[in-house]
Structure formats: structure tokens, C-alpha cells
Amino acid sequence: MAYFENVGKIAYEGSRSTNPYAFKFYNPQEVVAGKTMEEHLRFAMAYWHTLTAGGSDPFGTDTAVRSWDKYDGMDKAKARVEAAFEFLDKMNLPFFCFHDIDIAPEGSSLREFYSNIDTIVDLISQGMKTSGKKLLWNTANMFTNPRFMHGAGSTCNADVYAHAAAQVKKGLEVGKQLGAENYVFWGGREGYETLLNTDLKLEMDNMARLFHMAVDYAKEIGFDAQFLIEPKPKEPTKHQYDFDAATTISFLQKYDLDKHFKLNLEANHATLAGHTFEHELRVARINGMLGSLDANQGDMLLGWDTDEFPLNIYDSTLTLYEVLKNDGLGKGGINFDAKVRRQSFEPEDLFLAHIAGMDTYAKGLKVAAKLIEDRVFDDFIDKRYASFKEGIGADVVSGKATLASLAEYALNNENPRRNESSRQELLKAKLNQYILAE
Questions:
Q1: What is the mean pLDDT of the chain?
Q2: Which of 26, 171, 368, 412 is the most exposed place for a label (fewest CB within 10 A)?
Q3: Is 102 labeled as catalytic in the residue annotation?
Q4: 128, burial (CB in 10 Å: exposed 0-12, middle 13-18, buried 19+)
């Protein structure tokens, strides 16, 4: 059965194409900075937004028209698998991602959930073998079910903690079976509302214990995926333990988990934390912790996670600049954790949105590569910090300087070298120039 019969395979037609069902900038085999676009970008479909989301919001029910919604239960889950591989093929997407409850209904018990997952994973495995598509990452949804109202790894209820561990165990087994390249932890409710009823230390200690258990079990079963944590600052929990990249890295370092985990960073989460996406990427990159991306954008006029498709060339350029400076994402990729707007309810809108997002990142990749090749920012930064490459500055960097030696230097150099302008406006104009010229 065809679920998207009105859309054919999406091909690259170039920037002058007027065909809405064609790539204007994403040419998978075009070589940029030594690799093909497909190798650089490693695009993935988010199962939840593409196949399970219906367009509901706090003020209205589902609006999406989806042919598989005529089914229920496991029949709907099986139909979604068929739709998934049709969509991946037509969009030329090499990867996909999912939560456990995205692919299979929970049923009335954990045993039934396990059984449902096994049935669907067998179908997904068959689809992967025939299509060549790969699983970028999978994860356990430990935030939707009411049992997780107090959290999962940070819950105050040991029985709930055990249930969360059972979901993680199954998720790791599924990841191994499907050859997942990564496994993600997203702490949807790992945080607290008020300290008046919270044992902060116990909750964070227990979260770390769960992560260590996952690392140990992955080794036990021979699952060699990269572990990832996805920071999110708020919504739904007021005080999230994984607030941003810096907070999460600190947590991983404290609990001796940094050698096992990297970060899966999302643009809209950066916005909620009061950061730019490139800030979060830079923090992760300089700490050797940049693992994978969730590509989307938020609405600057709204204070929640709107998960819009990424369409801002300026942002995508700075995003890919950090990725290229990181020498790529390794096992990671760029997952479209993005949903069509509630009013974009037809099946075709899923294609139009992904085309727009993939083109935006492809354009950003080309501009970022040119900026790096021409050393537009590198040369300026080198010059700006030149004083630390010689004399007293070199002593500071090498560790030779002391407070006494620096004080002596300052006393003998009462008139320090004149500061130079940071030229912020010039650099932003240069960025605009490169975006418009490409």
C-alpha cells in the first residue's frame, strides 16, 4: 500500500527550480570540504513528529490527515512502519530515529509492551534490510506516561525507577538488534518544581546510577553505540538537571560518565536556555562532547518548544561552521526533530517541510565551508589574541607566569598596548556577504 501516493521521489534540481517537490541546494553527492553532502549531514527522520504526531495542541485536537489513522493498536503501528520506509525512500533520507512508544503501543503491561516492541522491531529490521536505511538513534520515552510524573531516573518512587530501567534495558537490546549508531537519553521530566520536597543530591546520584547501568549493560550485550544526552532547560520541569551543554557536561564529568557520553544538541532547546545554537555547539565542541544534532528552530516570540523546521540560513551556517570545525559528527547526524504546523495538515506537507529543512542545512554547509576555507573568522581571531603568542602572554598560556611575575610586568608597563576594535559589525557583514554570495 502507498501512503504518500501523490508524491514521487524527491530529486535535486538546483536553485533555479520552481518545483516545490525538489531539492534546490541539497545535492547528496556534491562534494563539499572533502566529503559528500550526504556524508556531512547524515539526515534523519524523527518518527514521532513525522508519523505519530497529529497536530494537537493544548487548545485543540488532531488536525493531521494520515491514511494510517484508519487503523488502531498494532495494526496502526505496522502501517506506520510501511509509511516510514516509503517516506525515507522518497525523501532520500538515510537515517531515522524513534522513542519506544513511537513504534509500538504500551498495552496493559510491561510484558505486553515488550511483545509489541518485538513484533514491530522485526518489521523495522526487514525494512532496513531491503531499503538500506539505518537507525541513527533510539531512546525510551520516560516522560509521557503518568507513572513518570515525578521523573524517571530522578523519581522519588523506586518502583517507577525500576520500570524506567526496564525500558532502558529493552531500548538497548532494540538498538543492538537494529544496529543503532547512537542511543539517546532525553530527560523529559528529570528535574524538580520546588526544593521544599526534593532530595536534590539523591535524584542526581540516581540518574547517574541509571546511566552507569546502561553503560554496563551495553558492554554486556556487545552494543557499541555512542551514548548521548540531550540537554533541555525547561518545559515541562521548571528546574531541569540537563539545563544546557555546560550543565550537562559538568554532570557527566562529576559522575565519571564523560568518557561514555556525548551531547545530542537541539536548536530550540538552546533558545529556551537563553543561548544561541552555535553557543551550545561551541561549548560541546571545545570539550570534545559534540555528538549529534536535533535540527529545528523556535519562535522568538514564544517561550516554549515549538519544534519548527529549520529555515534560517544564518543559523544553519553557524551551526554547520561548528560541525565542520569539529571534523564532523562521527556516529551522530542531523535529526529533524521538527513538526509541521498544525495548519499544515496534509501528507504532502511532510515532504515540503523536510525539503525546506534539508535545503537550509545544505546551503549552510556550503557557506560554512567557504568561511573556513577563506579563514574569515580564524585570521581575525588569531590577530585579536596575538598578545598571548609572545612575551608575557606566551608565559600565561604556557603556565610559566605567576601572580608575582605578572605584577612585576604590569608595574614596568604602566601603558599597556592599545586595545583594538572587535569589529563585530564588520564580521557580521562578512557573514552576510558569504551567505548572499554563495
A1: 96
A2: 412
A3: yes
A4: middle
Is 382 labeled as ligand-binding?
no
Q: Is 212 a catalytic residue?
A: no
Coil, strand, or helix at residue 334?
Answer: strand
Please tell me the pTM assigned to this model.
0.96
Report whether 337 belongs to an annotated binding site.
Answer: yes
List the domain boundaries for the chain: 24-374, 377-436
Phi first, then psi: give them for residue 184, nearest 5 degrees.
Answer: -110, 140
How far apart CA 245 and CA 263 sit, in angstroms, is 7
Q: Enumerate helices (H) and strands (E) in the chain, giving the number of each.
A: 16, 14
DSSP label at residue 66: -
Flag whether 307 is marked binding: yes
Q: Which three cell numbers stand for residue 174?
A: 532494540
More confident residue, 313 or 303: 313
Q: Does domain 24-374 have CATH number 2.60.40.1470?
A: no
Cell triple for 438? 554563495
From the list 49, 99, 163, 275, the catalytic residue is: 99
SS3 content of the chain, % helix, strand, coil (to 5): 50, 15, 35
